Amino acid sequence: MAEDQHSHVPGSSPRLHHTTFTTLQLEEMVLWYEKVAGLKAVFRGDLGAWLTNDEANHRIALLALPNLKRPVDKPHTTGHHHTAFEYPDFDQWVNSYVRLRDANIKPFMCVDHGMTISLYYTDPDGNGVEIQVDTFGQWDKSKTWMSNSEEFAVDQVGEFFDPEHVVKARSEGLTFAEIHLRVRNGEYRPEVIPDVYLPEVY
Ligand SMILES: [Fe+2]
Known about the structure:
By secondary structure, this protein is α+β, with helices and mostly antiparallel strands. The chain has 2 domains: 17-67, 2-Layer Sandwich (glyoxalase-related enzyme like fold); 81-202, 2,3-Dihydroxybiphenyl 1,2-Dioxygenase, domain 1, CATH 3.10.180. 29% of the residues lie in helices and 22% in strands. It contains 6 helices and 9 strands. Bound molecules: fe (ii) ion (FE2). Residues 82, 84, 130 line the site of fe (ii) ion.
């Protein structure tokens, strides 16, 4: 397709490839991303690490530049809120929750957004990391739901849930569709509704 000289939209679009964070604790960050999402360092040096868990040469880069300062009030400062990783199915997503919980890595917020059911963690630097599974199992369907559904138009956050209820429901034989419905009905709400702001880790 020819580029339209007068359009603000490019004729072809680049794909999202990676995100880069600066860090004061490179080692902890590398270990955390490997443990949480299976990212491995393609290259690791004194200045940083370049991590991937798929066919791309890197997806998350970490720069340990000299003279960095700790952020001030990161949860209430504009910028990055979270990076998201997606499991292809519900079982792998629940298994990830259980594995991390048993390693004492717990989400600060769990939300069924309608098109995804999502667990939110913070990395050692307080950056959000979302681990999600698509409730439709197909991106075109979840995209259509986001665009057109009354539910999303009314509420773009969704329903909070306690993941332990989800684990229990799965062990009792409920399907993903049944659990999703119960979460959306507010049946698995946590005792305390968490804050959508990132937790302060400093
Ligand atoms: Fe997200």
